Amino acid sequence: MKVILAGGGTGGHIYPAVAIARGILEKYEKADILFIGTEKGMESSIIPREGFPFRKIKVRGFMRKMTFENVIAVKENLLSLIECRRIIKSFKPDIVIGTGGYVCGTMLMTAALSGIPTLIHEQNAFPGITNRILSRFVDKIALTFPEASDYFHSKYKISVTGNPLRGEITTIGKDDGMAAFGFDEKKPLLLIIGGSRGAKKINESIMLIAADCEKNREFQLLHMTGESQYESVISLYKKKGIPYNTSYLKVMPYIHNAPYALAAADLIISRCGAGLISEITALGKPSILIPYPYATDNHQEYNARALEKYGAANVILESGLNEDLLFSQVKKLFSNPDKMKDMALNSKRLGKPNAASDIVEAIETLLN
């Protein structure tokens, strides 16, 4: 089997593509896989590090207002169609798969018009513009959230597969997660994920929670600040006299062994990117979700509301976020084990830990 995977720009588009590639290789050990991306996107460093062949094409997205940049974009995208045609002609793929980002546009369109089987995967509850356009041309549409189907016309193409996860997510136990960070297995753990680049409002709104953790020791706290905000957050802890590196409270700029942190957590406060949401639900974790207000098309709020609708998460918009509100929600949940259990069960019901293998099945259906 020869497969082209196109996707890029952010990790939310890249890591699902990697998970799909690994799912293919698990079943077809000799599969030949080629990734397509851009030089400026994160994929240019991530994909080679993951050990896959990678080819760059020059393509860019359009601005949402009339600018000269759009003239340049038209030129580059037309040229990229020619380059995509060359890649397809030389590689001769059996199928072309897109996981989002404007790099998918020309690659998937070229493949579709060339009569090659095509599949797109949409991670978010509110689909991106590229996938909405491509949906009319491709053969199969795989979705993370069933709510996304409202935005696609060709319902017969749709399969709700979930979002492909890194393999270790569902194999690590809670005890292993607690031991990895030196936490007490007898007390609940609150995991706060400020984002890889940080989330200023979230980081500033957890000080009452941290102070209560220090004073009463009823729960434990693992706080990832994001590397860019670590120093400023540590300054806040110092200013308020809260220890930030103890057996029960740990502040880190970035959690490199994230699967262990997620496995250990009893409650999670985080943003609402599709990848993290998929991991939370695959593990059946209750959460308090705070959408990034400037996400494209407000897709993070759509993701969060999809969990809230089924009682798996509480949602707080950043415009209404403050220390008192966040502290109140955490205390209410930790003091109500039955509510936490219900949220965990609802979260687990939404999880799709076999997404990668389901997408491989969809690929096989197309090819057969």
Automatic annotation (TrEMBL):
Enzyme Commission no = 2.4.1.227
Keyword annotations for this protein, in alphabetical order, are:
Cell cycle, Cell division, Cell membrane, Cell shape, Cell wall biogenesis/degradation, Glycosyltransferase, Membrane, Peptidoglycan synthesis, Transferase
Instruction: Read off the InterPro entries from this record.
Output: GlcNAc_MurG (IPR006009), Glyco_trans_28_C (IPR007235), GlycoTrans_28_N (IPR004276)
Subcellular location field: Cell membrane
Q: How does it sit in the membrane?
A: Peripheral membrane protein
One MF annotation (Gene Ontology) recorded for this entry: glycosyltransferase activity
Tell me the residue numbers annotated for binding UDP-N-acetyl-alpha-D-glucosamine.
T10, G11, G12, N124, R166, S196, I255, Q300
Ranges where the Glycosyl transferase family 28 C-terminal domain occurs = 190-357
Q: Which residues form the Glycosyltransferase family 28 N-terminal domain?
A: 3-142
Q: Does the keyword Transferase apply?
A: yes
This protein's pathway: Cell wall biogenesis; peptidoglycan biosynthesis
Q: Name one Pfam family in it.
A: Glyco_tran_28_C
Which reactions appear under catalytic activity for this entry? di-trans,octa-cis-undecaprenyl diphospho-N-acetyl-alpha-D-muramoyl-L-alanyl-D-glutamyl-meso-2,6-diaminopimeloyl-D-alanyl-D-alanine + UDP-N-acetyl-alpha-D-glucosamine = di-trans,octa-cis-undecaprenyl diphospho-[N-acetyl-alpha-D-glucosaminyl-(1->4)]-N-acetyl-alpha-D-muramoyl-L-alanyl-D-glutamyl-meso-2,6-diaminopimeloyl-D-alanyl-D-alanine + UDP + H(+)
Which CDD domains has this protein been placed in?
A: GT28_MurG
| Purpose of the protein | Cell wall formation. Catalyzes the transfer of a GlcNAc subunit on undecaprenyl-pyrophosphoryl-MurNAc-pentapeptide (lipid intermediate I) to form undecaprenyl-pyrophosphoryl-MurNAc-(pentapeptide)GlcNAc (lipid intermediate II).
Q: What is this protein called?
A: UDP-N-acetylglucosamine--N-acetylmuramyl-(pentapeptide) pyrophosphoryl-undecaprenol N-acetylglucosamine transferase
Which organism was this protein described from? Lutispora saccharofermentans
